[in-house]
Amino acid sequence: MNVLGIETSCDETAAAVVCDGVDIRSNAIYSQIAKHRPYGGVVPEIASRNHVAKLPGIIEEALTEASMGYEDIDAIGVTYGPGLASSLVVGFSAAKALAERLSVPLVGVNHHAGHLHSVFMGEDAPSMEGMFPLLALMVSGGDSSLVLMRDVGRYEIVGSTIDDAAGEALDKAAAVLQLGYPGGPIIQKTAEGGDAHAVRFPRGLEQPGRGRWLYAYDRNLCFSFSGLKTSLLTHVQKQEEPLEGIALQHVAASFQEAVADALVKRTLRALDTFEVKSFTCAGGVSLNRVLREKLTKVSEERGLPLLLSPPRLCTDNAAMIAGVAYEQIRRKEAVAEPVDVSPSLRLADWEAA
Q1: pTM of the model
Q2: Beta strands in 113-218 (DSSP E)
Q3: Domain of residue 22, CATH code
C-alpha cells in the first residue's frame, strides 16, 4: 500500500510516499528556518504563507522522487495536530481535497505519534516484534514527555514537563547567549570544547518526592526547565563582560549537560518503574549528541535495546506521518476522518482497547 504523507504542523513543509508503512520511497522537505531566523523563532503567519506557497511543489517532488503518479496513491495521511493552527490548516485542507479527488481514504495522524513511529522506519530500522512494551522519551520544541507504549498505537503518557519543553529551553538559552536560532544545534556547536561541569545549573525537580502533578502524572517522572532558564539568565547578568570564547563554550556546554541530565534522570526513573523490553528517544531534540551518548550508556549498562531514528527522521517530516497512517489502516483503526485540525491534540490510543 502506497501512502502519501503530508506534514505542515509548524515550519517544515513536507510530503512523502511510504510503501507498507516502513519503506520510504520519498521524503521531501522544505525548511523555513532561514525565514524565521531573523525573528528568533517561528512566526505563525509567515509559516502558513510559506506552506501555501510551497506545499504543491513539495507534493510533486515527493511523487517524482518515488517515481509515482497520483494514480499510484492508495491513501493519504496528514497531520491534524498538535501544532500551529494556521499551519495545520494548510496541510489538512490540501490533503482533504486531494483525497476527495483521488477517492482514497484520508487518515488524520497525531504529530507525536509520527515521531514515535519513526524509529521503526527506514532500511536499517528494527522490527516491531519483541520491542513492546516500550518506553519513549519524547523531546521536541513543543513537548517533553515520557510515554509507555504497550503496542503500536497504544500510548500512556506517564510523565511530562510542567512548564517548558526541552527544545524550547534550548531555544531560549541560545537567545540569552545571543547565539541565534534554532537553539538546539547552535548550543551543541558552541558547547564543543567547553567544560560541561564548569557551571552547575539546576536540573529541575531534582529531589524525589511524593504526589502527582498535571494530569495525575507521578512528579518523579515530570520535567521542569523554567528554573534552569532563570539560572542561566542570572549567571549571564552577573558577568562583568559579555560572554565569549572559551567562557561562552563552558556555559553552553554546562547548559546542554543540564538539559540532557534532566531528561536522562527521569528516563531512568521510568525504567525503574515500568517493565519494558526496549526504550527510545524521539523528536527533534533526540538529535543532540550528548543526550544520545547518555542514553546509549544507559542501554549498555541495562542491556536494554535503545531505538533511535536516523537524523533525517528526527526532525519534522511526512514519512513518519505516512507510516502511522498505514498502521492505522492495517489495524482497521483509521478512525473517522477528522473534520478539522486540533492544535492542542494530545497523544492518545488510536487502537481499540
Answers
A1: 0.93
A2: 134-139, 144-151, 154-160, 212-213, 217-218
A3: 3.30.420.40
